[in-house]
Amino acid sequence: MNKIIRIGTRDSELALWQAKKVEDTLKELGYRTQLVPVKSTGDLVLDKPLYEMGITGVFTKTLDVAMINKQIDIAVHSMKDVPTALPQGIVQGAVLKRASTADILLHKGDTSFLSENATAVIASGSLRRKAQWLNRYPNHTVVDLRGNVNTRMQKLQDNEWNGAVFASAGLDRINKKPKNFVPLDWMIPAPAQGAMVVVVNMDDNFALDAVAQLNDYETEMTTHIERQFLRTLEGGCTAPIGALAMYSEHDDTIDFKGVLLSLDGKIKFEIHKVVPIEEWKKLGFTAAKEIMAQGGEALINELRLHFKR
Ligand SMILES: NCc1[nH]cc(CCC(=O)O)c1CC(=O)O
């Protein structure tokens, strides 16, 4: 019980907040912990190429390498940034209780551009947000916007754009949600948006036992459904895909919404199912198969070709 659990985190404000949240909870349970901010892959060396180890995520690979090198014991991620296939030897230790799943639009006080036929420039670096925005507002233009939450907020202020799309959960966590925002209740979030995951080395029973106590079963289940939908549809390519599963205690059912769009938002395949809880394990898979049968498979194949070029 005396071992110190080293918690790896990236050094953005949001990442640090999330890692501290896990640290505090572990401390409350009586564990000793240490936060280890990990900067870039540059100073981390592995004796095998990353892809051979199944390390693919842009946001997660630095921590994956640190974990395989045993420089950290666990890593905390925004679950939506984690590829659906984890690297060899790394397992999901816990999914924390989910916060808001919503996307929101930050604007500058005037929202008249949301009325029909108006034009506007909206910023987002996400294929999913861009496609859903253009599907709903075909007269608008969507420009690219990348960086961590703080950088993106600054860029919105520094540019003439009308607004930019953010995950509500990220802004809530670092307490930076401005008053100028509108919730986008029609937009389907990224699979696992608003959830945090803790990953652990497969053979580390001490950390696995500790972290298991942080798991929220309902969030584990709903994010599993959403990520299964994503994995079944895209199979390694990137595509504008949204998914949201919600458990209803009252009916003991899962409400699932999924969407796949073309990059320009002109084509959209949607699914909405409400199923008894007993069917949760296959729900993401069956929903994805239905989207494919609607014509989604051809669209995915097109996207695969597009990104190969
Ligand atoms: N890709 C960046 C990212 N990863 C997780 C969050 C916020 C927290 C969450 O969605 O769980 C964000 C910022 C955003 O999408 O605005």
TrEMBL record:
Note the PROSITE patterns from the entry: PORPHOBILINOGEN_DEAM
**SUPFAM superfamilies associated with the record:** Periplasmic binding protein-like II, Porphobilinogen deaminase (hydroxymethylbilane synthase), C-terminal domain
Porphobilinogen deaminase N-terminal domain boundaries: 5-205
Q: What class of enzyme is it?
A: transferase
InterPro entries, from UniProt?
Answer: HemC, Porphobilin_deaminase_cofac_BS, Porphobilin_deaminase_N, Porphobilinogen_deaminase_C, Porphobilinogen_deaminase_C_sf
UniProt EC number:
2.5.1.61
List the molecular function annotations (GO) for this entry. hydroxymethylbilane synthase activity
Every Porphobilinogen deaminase C-terminal domain range: 224-292
> Which key words tag this protein in UniProt?
Porphyrin biosynthesis, Transferase
Catalytic activity as recorded in UniProt: 4 porphobilinogen + H2O = hydroxymethylbilane + 4 NH4(+)
Q: In which pathway does it act?
A: Porphyrin-containing compound metabolism; protoporphyrin-IX biosynthesis; coproporphyrinogen-III from 5-aminolevulinate: step 2/4
Record-linked CDD domains: PBP2_PBGD_2
Q: Could you provide one GO biological process annotation from this protein's UniProt record?
A: heme biosynthetic process
Oligomeric state and interaction partners are given as: Monomer.
The role this protein plays is: Tetrapolymerization of the monopyrrole PBG into the hydroxymethylbilane pre-uroporphyrinogen in several discrete steps.
- Protein name, UniProt field: Hydroxymethylbilane synthase
